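During the reporting period the student researcher (J.K.) took over the structure-prediction task from the postdoctoral fellow and processed the backlog of single-chain submissions. One of the processed entries is reproduced below for the supervisory committee.
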Amino acid sequence: MKTLLLVEDSRSFGAILKRRLEESLPVTVHWARRYAEAESLVQQQEDPFDLAVLDLNLPDAADGQIVDFILSQHIPAFVMTGEYKKETRTHMMAKGILDYFIKDHINVVDTLIQTIQRIDRNRQFTLLVVDDSRSTRLLLGRFLSRYGFRILEAASGQQALEQLGGQKVEMVLTDYHMPGMDGFQLTRAIRSRWSRNDVCIIGLSSQEDPDMAIHFIKAGANDFLTKSCQNEELLYRVLQNIEILEHNLMMEQQIRQRTNEIKEHKDFLENILGSALDAIITIDHNQKIVQFNPAAEILFGHTRDAVLGQDVDLIIPPGYRQRHRESVMHRLNDDGQFKPIYRRIEIPGLRIDGSCVDLDVGLTSVKSGGEVYYTAFMHDVTDRKQLMKSLKETLDVAESANKAKSDFLANMSHEIRTPLNAVIGLADLALQQELSPKILDYLNKISFSAKSLLRIINDILDFSKIEAGKLSFESSIFLLQDLFSHIHDLFHNQVVAKRLEWHLSLTEAYPSELVGDPLRLEQVLINLIGNAIKFTETGTVAIRVVTVQELPDQVTLEFIVQDSGIGMAQEQLSQLFHPFTQLDTSATRRFGGTGLGLSISQLLVQQMGGSIRVESEPGRGSLFAFDATFQRPSGQIKQQLADSAPRPQGYEPSALLQRMTGARILLVEDNAINRQVANEILTSAGLIVEMAEDGVEAVAKVNQSSFDLVLMDIQMPNMDGYQATRQIRGDARHQQLPIIAMTAHAMAEDRTRSLVAGMNDHVTKPIDRNRLFAALWPWIDRSNETTMVTPPPPPRRPNNTVGLLPELLDGIDLPSALERINGNQLLLRSLLLEFAHDFADADQKIAVLLTGRRQDDLKAAERLAHSVKGMAGNISAQELFQAALAMERAIREQQRQQWPVLLQQFRTSLAEVCRSIIALQPATAVVTECNDSSVVSTAIDWYRIRLLLAELEQQLKGYNVLAQQSLDGLKPLLSGTALQEPLQQIEQSLSGFDFEAALVHCNALLVQLEPEACLSDEKDGG
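J.K. obtained the following structure tokens:
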């Protein structure tokens, strides 16, 4: 079929139909919109159209005249009209159209195309019409030829057999009553030469007799019809039988193809066996050899013909034959059921000359045709075993050297951490004092550099522990939200300082509790995120988590860190995870580090049952992704974790200060600087500290006095911490005295050794204040003490948070919000203003995004609802939190019918919260407490002003909302001076969160401050 005439007056439907026809069929479509145009196309066409699709009602011929014209030109035609009338359809079908379609749905186009395709396929089939009535033959032939079939005619059974013998015929339609040979006889004659799959036979008769159909079927016909049937029924039955014939032919073709494939596969397998380097031997259940490949002939020295049918004992040394038989017989149960074998073993083999070889054997078994066969894949490993013996001796030497290296690293760890503890501790303590800007800058850099050195040391130690297989992993229950909250706080200032876009997406993260090692997971994430920020100057750093697989007892998550930074070339990617390798090795390199971070991260991910991958291009950023598997905490796991935790029961975090206040601590430390650092940290928390310089003094003091807890160093002169602990535990009075190791020994085996010696816990140096207190408070409980020693009060700090918030705010639970941030009104006020600034129009943005057509629009709407939910929870806007939660869930689950109602609830709650925040008045009353309230100085404290301005400058550079706190501290100090106006400019910029403008005003104020401060200094000195 080459050309098709389409007559359709509708431009839109005609265009669709023309395009779909040309896309689906190998045909050129000529489209006419009117009768006259169609008539002209037919007359101009050199070859007649193969097919026509006609609309009945045209502007210039509304009564179907087009059908008469097209059929008069002997063009097969379909009618497609918009209105169904039974009498019209009957009339059109009687005229001789192929079919009649109603344009009630766009799917009618598919139905039309399928019908045309069926007619086109029919052209490959030849039908033989056998009837002694010429008129019947003509009627049947003309009708079926319209549907593409090639038609042959025969007036008798004998003519039919001659036609069948001379050419390929797929279907015979035969009448019953015929002279010389009736339909039954013709059917049996055809079936004697051709099967039902070769020639399909449909019997015809003018008699409506049920027995007639039975006789035709018994004679070998495929189907039977009466001549009185409608044309549609005849066409349907012919097409049905043709499709069955097509299916059978296709099945036969597939069977032939499959048979050829099996033969080719068998030849292929035989070629593989013949060319295999390993010996392959197969035996049956009677231990007889049935397969022996050329490699086996070379290995054992026997020929294939000589061993086939022989017992397998022929190639097994005598001492192993009985064991072999027992192993095979064990594979059959008492009831004879087959047990498959999938094993790998090493056994000796017997060669034809009587010598033995060491064999690595892979054993498999199969059951075929009711028989069990065993196949052995054998490889000579005699030389390899000799090599392994030599390698083991070399390995022993290497392990000895590696142990020496590990011992050296452990000792160096202690020696380096001890002075580093003093540097970091004293720097942190000094930073808590009132300092000049220059000294403050020096100390910040000292602290940063010391902690950077500590990170390098930790990287080297981690790598050495991983190398030695001694890196420990802990199991605890944690939430991803808590972990990522800490990561967000950790990197927030860095991201703000570099002005990067920071996307932390947890919408798809696993919401439930997980069991694993959150610190090791955090270590990997910190490394990847730190690198992303380091190597990205402008653009975006994005982190997201997706669930890969979720099972009843475990879940696998994928963590993705993506940046828009400098990217990497392919040759760099190939070296990326090699230890001690850095991308920038030039003399002017911009980025530091040990080159161990990614190597350690890869090894940690592997320990967590996952793998890490990277995608990157130079100048187009990088994507790091890794997966990790975690357990889900069942009741049994929770109990196991609780039982394994070395902590007393019945403690609550909220009781921390009450329980620790006044506790007596014995600090055992031989290093004077470390004693000073630890003492100041402990006393600042309200603890009473007594010190000992070595284990001997510690034992004496424990025996002389009563302590609530002992902090014990390990490596000390005279008596180390282990010995001191064992002596203390040897006295029955001190069995329950908590002893915690505080040491620079950071290896996993050091912690184990501490616990074995009788200590209750183990913390490492340099001292981390939070981790130290977290280790102390579970062991200190003074809540039941009748007499409590009151420690000296800690230094009083300025309180500048009075009167910043009202007692009530509509939509916000102020007591709950203040409790969350330890009562800091200034911080809460800043959070509220920041919320109103960022999310006042969140309802409008979500509404616009929900009308978007892109999937990214819905994702953005979901993320915005999630952000509002998180911030609302932080400021205790409970009703808004619930509304945002419902909105987020409805967007994620595509519950579109609920969006309007939920959006209105969200809008109402958001408006209430924002109104309350906007109503807040600027904080003007700030009270500064002094150590002695009776003394009020009217002199301007230029030193304190300079200090607060320097602090404010640093906070503005870091986009830190606590800048408002420093500003509020400056306002009373500069009240009534000429510098009050520029201070108001800073406040005005800061109220709009314009940190850059505020920084400009702050620098201007510093310039103006110098003359005033100098003048004041001269007066004071004069």
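The committee noted the following: The first helix runs from residue 11 to 24.
J.K. will present the remaining backlog at the next meeting.
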